[in-house]
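Progress note, sequence design subtask.
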């Protein structure tokens, strides 16, 4: 059941949700906006506006990154590199930085797209070919490191043998760095133009994808007496997630193979099936129900069974209109979706209820 439907500004940000508040980024005219809405009715509660505008011909105007929520604050990286830290309840600015100026980075072709990573008393931001860590209280830079190539992924926290580290993907491959200094711990070269986040399997392996054609790769990372060792377990072109998600469930990887859905074995990358046509959509794993919730590029929501033996779509309904690249969000039985024109909230019910 649709609960509400509202217009929204341009952009490819998803929603961050806390209680009855939802947060996103959007473009309205020449203003880049961090917005807070009431989750119950979609009414705006506050806007933070900056005279910033990112545009590129493929994706159009607007910010790309999804805000991060932590301890009553909103951390939002805009498309041009403006980084705002705001009070979550009223949008009051705590501090603001420009990551382009702080790192001397260039705005990448598709704009800054990552979500900030809060770790203890600092927040780490991916700025194209650099990572920069800021003090949460003051906004002063703690450390900044430039790496070989630019990228679009968010910094992602990982623990291996109780050693915390931040991993991110750029055009050189995957890099892991010390959280306190930014110094490289280990890296794995696989050149491409990556967009997706790394995925950590239940066994601790790392899955990465770096281009439209190269497929997916499974890596083993071990910290031994001689330092870090990174080994390629397998590489498969039977699943080519590039712009779209993939998830792991009960020993199998489900994700987008170009514009269709596919299932491969997490042990060896062998394909089990391919089916459906969802364009450049996105998906969520409903692990407790053995289901995938998919939003297609056209704004349709589909439910697919996570069955490694057969592709089975259980149902589909139109949610929003227009090109939809934004990631859907599911909180309990509430589904929030948006694109560059409208947003909507749906209450989902299980079959038979």
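Output:
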């Amino acid at each position: 059941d649709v609960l509400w439907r509202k217009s929204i500004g341009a952009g490819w940000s998803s929603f961050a949700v806390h209680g009855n508040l939802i947060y996103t980024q959007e473009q309205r005219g020449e203003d880049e906006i961090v917005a807070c809405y009431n989750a119950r009715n979609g009414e705006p509660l506050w806007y933070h506006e900056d005279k910033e505008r990112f545009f590129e011909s493929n994706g159009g105007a607007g910010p790309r990154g999804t805000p991060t929520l932590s301890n009553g604050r909103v951390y939002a990286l805009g498309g041009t590199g403006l980084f705002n830290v705001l009070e979550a309840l009223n949008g009051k600015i705590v501090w603001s930085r420009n990551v382009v100026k702080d790192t001397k980075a260039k705005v990448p072709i598709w704009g800054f797209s990552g979500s900030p990573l809060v770790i203890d008393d600092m927040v780490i931001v991916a700025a194209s070919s650099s990572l920069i860590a800021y003090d949460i209280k003051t906004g002063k830079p703690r450390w900044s490191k430039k790496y070989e190539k630019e990228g679009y992924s968010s910094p992602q926290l990982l623990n291996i043998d109780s050693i915390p580290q931040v991993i991110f993907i750029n055009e050189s491959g995957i890099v892991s760095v010390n959280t306190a200094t930014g110094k490289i711990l280990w890296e794995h070269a696989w050149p491409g133009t990556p967009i997706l986040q790394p995925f950590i399997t239940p066994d601790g392996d790392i899955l990465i994808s770096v281009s439209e054609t190269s497929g997916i790769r499974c890596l083993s990372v071990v910290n031994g007496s001689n330092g870090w060792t990174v080994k390629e377990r397998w590489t498969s072109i039977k699943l080519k997630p590039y712009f779209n998600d993939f998830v792991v469930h009960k020993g199998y990887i489900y994700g987008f193979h170009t514009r269709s859905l596919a299932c491969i074995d997490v042990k060896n990358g062998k394909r089990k099936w391919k089916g459906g046509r969802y364009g450049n959509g996105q998906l969520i794993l409903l692990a407790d129900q053995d289901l995938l919730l998919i939003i297609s590029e056209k704004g349709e929501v589909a439910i697919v069974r996570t069955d490694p033996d057969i592709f089975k779509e259980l149902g589909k309904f139109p949610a929003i209109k227009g090109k939809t690249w934004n990631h859907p969000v599911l909180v309990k039985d509430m589904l929030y979706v948006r694109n560059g024109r409208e947003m909507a909230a749906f209450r989902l019910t299980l079959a038979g209820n």
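The first strand starts at residue 2 and ends at 7. Work on this subtask will continue into the next period as scheduled.
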